[in-house]
């Protein structure tokens, strides 16, 4: 099996909860050795979120599903970085590391002598990635930032939710912690870019400032650009699409489907499937711009037509004429989907608590260096002795540190 893309890269992961751990997991999936630094006794905050939990068969230990989703392909080392002996361990580890990931509040690690300038003095080649809610600069820099808060402040909630005038109107949070996930991906892109620059451009590392606030704003570019051009704040569109019209969720006799008419030809073929070909000749609906201006009218007409048959009936006929559409799947239906099965989106890992722990695979597929191994998220501190031995700590010294609560 060929080496993975990041084989030989060592990452010190001092992040917790989701955005930072996602970046560490991505780097680990790609072959980096990722050493996760956790607090003795409690570990990553997300280990205690819940339920549901993955429980030790004897009931003595448990890990939260939230932790399990973002920490595979890592090694766990417990270190109390608030103590000088713990800080020294981190400094020893970074001497041979390529990357340090952290998501502490701005200024916190400086108190411990583990800020970028201090680490750079030890290892000038280090790529130091700081993941925060609001970034390293600006009036909000010291604020804590959680996904839902950034969805609100960054404008995402303002354009998400039912149309004004409909029941349930008003701003709405996107279900998953999508800003955390996107920030983790941005941090990964930043780390890999800085590693390339370091190795191709002279050997110097640098600090990366990745934050949720910048990420959510940047992710809204296809909504923000019209605003920047026109100065008009866009309304919420419910499930309406962002370009082609009509596009949205339509109720059928036994459920709902999502339809997108991305161009005039697709609209014409949809009208034929619905048994109303003359709709495509209506002056209100001839071109996409016309249909956008008369959006509520065409959406209401389509809503009445789709109510005449079940979901499968419409999807079969829309697929036959090349009109993009799909069912509204719950998670049971997602993993039962034959395409999802063929893509292997559900993978198994051997966990101490469960022989075949199910995980969602990395979404990247490489032709030459495929990701095939998914090591289960580590138990708290399970690799402490192993990793400390690589920096010269013998068993007696590790035992003494454990007695003092340092590891």
Kindly report the CATH topology of the largest domain.
Answer: Rossmann fold
Number of helices: 16
> Major sheet: size, sense and barrel closure?
6 strands, parallel
What best-fitting shape do the alpha-carbon axes yield? elongated
Q: Tell me what portion of residues adopts beta-strand conformation.
A: 15-25%
Strand order of the largest sheet: 5-2-1-6-7-8
Radius of gyration: 25 Å
GO molecular function, one term: CoA-transferase activity
InterPro entries: CoA-transferase_III_domain (IPR050483), CoA-Trfase_fam_III (IPR003673), CoA-Trfase_III_dom3_sf (IPR044855), CoA-Trfase_III_dom_1_sf (IPR023606)
Organism: Tardiphaga robiniae
Protein name: CoA-transferase
Q: Would you kindly provide a written description of the structure presented here, covering whatever features stand out?
A:
It is built from 16 helices and 13 strands. The chain folds into 2 domains: 10-218 and 359-403, Crotonobetainyl-coa:carnitine coa-transferase, domain 1 (Rossmann fold), CATH 3.40.50; 247-328, formyl-coa transferase, domain 3 (2-Layer Sandwich), CATH 3.30.1540.10. The chain has a 6-stranded parallel beta sheet with strand order 5-2-1-6-7-8, sandwiched between helices. With 407 residues, the protein is of the alpha/beta class. The model has no long low-confidence stretch (mean pLDDT 95). It holds the Pfam family CoA_transf_3. This is CoA-transferase. InterPro entries: CoA-transferase_III_domain (IPR050483), CoA-Trfase_fam_III (IPR003673), CoA-Trfase_III_dom3_sf (IPR044855), CoA-Trfase_III_dom_1_sf (IPR023606). Keywords: Transferase.
